[in-house]
Amino acid sequence: MSPRHFRRFIAAGTGVIAAAALAGCTTQPRPDVAVRTFLLDWQAGDYAAAASFTDGDPEEVAAALEEAHDQLDLAGVRFGLGPLEQDGDTAVSEFEAQADLGIGDPVWKYTGRMELRRGGDGWRVVWDPSVIHPDLGAGERLAVSYDVPDRGGIHDRTGRALVGEDAVTAFGVVPSGLKDAEKNITALAELLGEDPDPLMDRVRSAPPEEFQPLVLLRKKDVKAGVLAEAKAIPGVETRSLAMPLTPETARGVVGEVAGTAEHNVSSRVASAYQAGDTVGLSGMQNVFQQRLAGTATTEVVTLGEDGEQTGVLKEWPGTPSGSVTTTLDAEVQQAAESALQSMPGRGHLVAVDSRTGEVLASASRPNAFDNTGAFTEEYRPGGAFGIVSAAAALQTGAVSGADAQLACEPGVEVGGTEFGNENETGQWTQPQDLATAFATGCTSALAGLGEKTGEAGLAEAAEQFGIGGDWQLSLPTYSGELSASGEAGTAAGMAGTDGVTVSPLSMALVAGAVADGTWHAPRLAVDADDDIAEKPGEDRELDAGTVKELRALMRATVERGQATPANIGTVPVHGQVSQVEQKIGGKDTAVQWFVGYQGHVAFAAVAEVPADQVWDQYALLGGTGFLQGLPVGYVEAEYEAPVLGGAEDGEDAEQGEEGAAGAGAGAGADGADQAGQEGAAQPPMGG
Question: How far is it, in rounded angstroms, from Cα 311 to Cα 136?
Fold first, then answer.
C-alpha cells in the first residue's frame, strides 16, 4: 500500500469512528446535529450514509460526493463546523474544509455552505452541487491542473549548455478515453517497469480531456515492440518530446536525470513526485533539483460537460525553473576526457584555474554517472606528494634550496623501515642536489629528510596546501588526510607511501598553489544556493622563497627528469610524476600520477594500472595529451611569468629562461605557430 493510500485509509477510519459515536439514527432533531453527522459521514467516505441526510436522490448524491473525491484524488479530507443561522424551518450553515490533494501537493482549504430544511423526518441538507464547493454548478466537475515548467539547463563558464536535448517518447493517456482506468494504467506500468500508483494518482485528478504524460522514455531506448504493445492498451497514447536529459560532457559532475522508464523512478526516488516529472538522481542534477525542475503551478478547476475549463477555484503558483552555471570550461573538459582514452583502465584528470581554484575540468574513466573519483577517490600520492614534502623541508630548514647537496642512495632506513626509490632504474651519482633527486624520482632522499623536517613541519605544510582541509564543493569531495606520525611514519609521509591519502582534485590544487603562490580552495558552482553553499575556506599565501624553489624542482622534472615528454609549448610546463603501490578493490595496483601546471592551468592526472601490467607511465601520457589538447592559445593568451619578491630575487630572468627552454625543447614549429595565435581563454570568474 503506497504512503498516499495509507494516509487516505487513516483519515477515513478516524471519521468512521467519530460518525458512529454521534449518529444514532437518521432523524435529526436539530440542524447542527444534521450538519455534523452529514460532514462526518462525508469525511469518512461513507457516501451513502451522508446522502441519507440530504433531500436529494441518495444514489445521485452518494455518486457526486465520491466522484468529487476521485476527481481530486484526495489523500484525505477533514471538516470543521462553522456558524449556523436558523430561521424557522430553514437554516444556513457554513463549514471549513481541508482537502489534502496528496503527497507533494498542497492542502486546499475553503469555506463551504449548505442550506437545511426541516420536514416530517427531521432536518435535512438541501442537496445541490454547491454543497461540495460554493462555486461548483450543475453539470460541472472538479479537476486538478498542473503547469510544469521545462527543466532548466546546466552550463559551463561561457554559457555553453552541458546537457543536450534528447528525443523522448511520452507514454500517457487522455483520462476521458479510459474505460477501465485502473486496469489499463496497471498494464502500462507493468510494461514499462513502473509503480502504477503515482500514474493512477495523476490520472484520477487530471482534467479528463488533456493528455497526461505518465512515463518518459528516450526514443533510442524504446525497445522493439514496446510502442505497439503500449498502444494496444486501451486509452494509452504516445507523444514525441524534446527534453534536456543527457550530459554532452562531464557526466559525473552534471549527473543523471530520472523520469524515464529505464531509471525505474518509483524504486529509486524516495521523495514525492508527479508521474512524468524529471528528477535528478546524481551530480548537480540532484543537488540543484529544486532550482532546475522548479515547481508546478497547481490549480483546482471546474470543468463543464464538454471538458472545457469553466473556472479556477484555487491556485498555488509554482516557481519557475532556473539554470546552473558551473566553472567548467567545455573545451578544457573535452581535452581532459580525450586524454583519458590512452589509459589502460580507470583514471581521472582534474584541471583548475590556479589563480582562483575554479574547476575547469573533471574527467573520469570510465565516463559513468557514478564515477566521481576525480573529486572523491582516496589515493596514496607517492613521489607526487614530494611537492608538499619539499615545501616542508625547505620551510623547516631541513634543506636550504633546490641546489642543496644530499645523498641519494638506492635505499635508506628510517626508524627501522627501509625506503627505496620509485625510479629504480635511476643512476644515483653522489653527491646529488635536491632538484636532481626530485626530478629523477629519488624518493629515498625525501624519506631521509623526514627526521630533520619533523612530524609537525610536514603537517604544517600539508595544511598550507589544503590537505585535510574543511573546504567543500556542492558535490562530494575528499580533501585528503595526513596521519603520519613517529620517525618512520613521517619518513613514509614525506615519500607519500603511507600515512597520507589525497584525491586528484586535492593534488591539482597543490600544483595550482605553486603556480600562483597562493593556495585557493576549489569552486564549481558559480551561483550556488545559500543552502547548497560551497565552502571555500581561506586562501593561504605561501612563502615566496619556498614557492620559487618548488617551481625550480617541478621545472627540473620536466626539463631533465622523469617528465620530459611533457616539455611542450611556449609556456613552461612544471610537474612531478610518481608511481605507488596500493590495494584497490582487493587487487595490487600501481597508482600513477602526473601533477603539474602550465600557465594558469593546474592539473592532476591519475591512472590505475594492474601491478603486473606496468609498461608505461600512463598518467604522464594522459597529462601530456591533455595539455596538447587544450584550445590553441588557451594557456598562452593569459600567461604572465610570475614574479615573487621582486626583481632582486632573479625570478624574471629565471622565468624567461624557462620559457625559452620550453619552446626550444618541446614545441618545435608547431609550438612557434601556436605562440603566434591568440586563443579564446576565458577570464577567471571569481576567487
Answer: 9
Which run of H or E residues covers position 47?
Answer: helix 47-51
- Alpha carbon distance 641, 656 (integer Å): 7
Distance from C-alpha of 472 to C-alpha of 474, rounded to nearest angstrom: 7
91's enclosing H/E stretch is strand 90-100
Q: Which amino acid is at 179?
A: K
DSSP code string of 392-426: HHHHHTSS-STT-EE---S-EEETTEEE--S-TT-
Say how many Å lie between the first and final Cα of the chain, rounded: 52
Report pLDDT digits (tens) over 136-195: 999 999 998 888 888 899 999 999 999 988 888 889 999 888 889 899 999 999 998 888
Phi, psi of 393 (to 5 degrees): -65, -40
**Residue 137 to residue 128: CA distance in whole angstroms:** 8
Burial class of residue 567 (count of CB atoms within 10 Å of its CB; 0-12, 13-18, 19+): buried
The CA-atom distances, in angstroms, between 208 and each of 36, 175, 304 are: 33, 5, 11
The helix (H) or strand (E) run that includes residue 49 is helix 47-51
The rounded distance, in Å, linking the Cα atoms of 551 and 657 is 13
CATH architecture assignment, domain 3-138: Roll (3.10)
User: Residue 472 and residue 464: Cα distance in Å, rounded?
Assistant: 16
What pLDDT band is residue 431 in, cutting at 50, 70 and 90?
low
CA 537, CA 520: separation in Å to the nearest integer? 8
Which residues lie across from 519 on neighbouring strands?
A: 540
Q: What is the CA radius of gyration of the chain?
A: 35
DSSP sequence for 469-535: ---B-SS-----EE---HHHHHHHHHHTSSSEEB-HHHHHHHHHHHHHSEE---B-BTT--GGG--B
Q: Which of 225, 232, 325, 194 is nearest to 213 (CA)?
A: 194
Name the CATH topology of 154-325. Answer: Penicillin-binding protein 2a (Domain 2) (3.90.1310)
Cα–Cα distance for residue pair 225/220, rounded to 1 Å: 13
Q: How does DSSP assign 622-681, residue by residue?
A: HHHHHHHHSPTTTTGGG------S-GGGTHHHHHHHHHHHHIIIIIHHHHHHHHTS---P
The length of the chain, given as a count of residues: 687
Q: Are strands 481-482 and 347-353 parallel, antiparallel or unpaired?
A: unpaired
CB atoms within 10 A of CB 426: 18
Distance of alpha carbon 364 from alpha carbon 360, whole angstroms: 14
d(CA 568, CA 634): 14
Q: 3-class DSSP state for residue 222?
A: coil
The yes-or-no verdict on residue 569 having pLDDT over 80 is yes
Model pLDDT for residues 285-304, shown as the tens digit of each residue: 999 998 998 888 999 999 99
- Give the lowest-confidence range in 88-102, 218-232, 545-559, 599-613: 218-232
Domain ranges of the chain: 3-138, 154-325, 330-675
The answer regarding whether domain 330-675 maps to CATH 3.40.710.10 reads yes
